[in-house]
Amino acid sequence: NAGVTQTPKFRVLKTGQSMTLLCAQDMNHEYMYWYRQDPGMGLRLIHYSVGEGTTAKGEVPDGYNVSRLKKQNFLLGLESAAPSQTSVYFCASSRGTGLGNIQYFGAGTRLSVL
Amino acid sequence: EDQVTQSPEALRLQEGESSSLNCSYTVSGLRGLFWYRQDPGKGPEFLFTLYSAGEEKEKERLKATLTKKESFLHITAPKPEDSATYLCAVQVNTGFQKLVFGTGTRLLVSP
């Protein structure tokens, strides 16, 4: 039972480069989320998806794009990386958002932008 | 603005020394409060959900309680394997029911 799997685990980029982070879940969850975690700050929501083919902006969406072409996958893209995007990125999924719905997290991707 | 504050930022205990972590919140509409555990280099792992004031939940050495303004995570007779960062998050009812996270409490339990 894999749960939520994120790839890659680590990445170093130069300013201006692009990359895509992949999140896959095997729990048949409808909702998926991308967060970033920075020192001294709580997890902040970047983008989320309420189902296949749908995405929406979270708290800190600037500089990121997302796509959810398949229910089990949620991709986070950085078109032109900036040092301010150095962070740990977490993907999560949940069955829904009502009472009792728990968000399950992946192990994270550690990204450094030089 | 919805806000979650956790204290202390860091806590060092001796094995067997019980203590409590605090999570205070000011939110527009609380739907639930979540506790997660996060080990270094890993993602948050779900522990508890609390929905209403007075509710309590227990799991091994951990007990979570909820009042109208705060939640406590009580750790009874901790062991070194309880060392981790404990995150609190509140689910707020603002259209999309998002989670607002605190910055966490880093717990270190020494043998």
Going by helix content, strand content and strand pairing, the class of chain B is: mainly beta
For the secondary structure, the number of strands of chain A is: 11
Overall 3D shape of chain A = globular
The share of residues in helices of chain A is under 10%
Poorly predicted runs of chain B: none
Query: Could you tell me the strand content of chain B as a percent range?
Result: over 45%
Please tell me what the overall shape of chain B is.
globular
List how many beta strands of chain B DSSP finds.
11
The major β-sheet of chain B equals: 6 strands, mixed
User: Quick check: average pLDDT of chain A?
Assistant: 94
Q: What is the overall pLDDT average of chain B?
A: 94
The tally of helices of chain A reads 0
| Gyration radius of chain A, in Å | 13 Å
Low-confidence stretches of chain A: none
Biggest interface pair, residues each? A-B, 25 and 25 residues
Q: How many individual helices of chain B?
A: 0
Strand/helix succession of chain A: EEEEEEEEEEE
Work out the helicity level of chain B. under 10%
Oligomer: heterodimer
Strand content of chain A: over 45%
SSE layout and pairing:
The complex is a heterodimer of chains A (114) and B (111).
Chain A: E1 4-7, E2 10-13, E3 19-25, E4 31-37, E5 44-51, E6 54-57, E7 65-67, E8 73-78, E9 87-94, E10 104-105, E11 109-113
Chain B: E1 3-7, E2 10-14, E3 19-26, E4 30-38, E5 45-50, E6 56-59, E7 62-66, E8 70-75, E9 84-92, E10 99-101, E11 105-110
Parallel strand pairs in B: 2-11
Antiparallel strand pairs in B: 1-3, 3-8, 4-5, 4-9, 6-7, 7-8, 9-10, 9-11
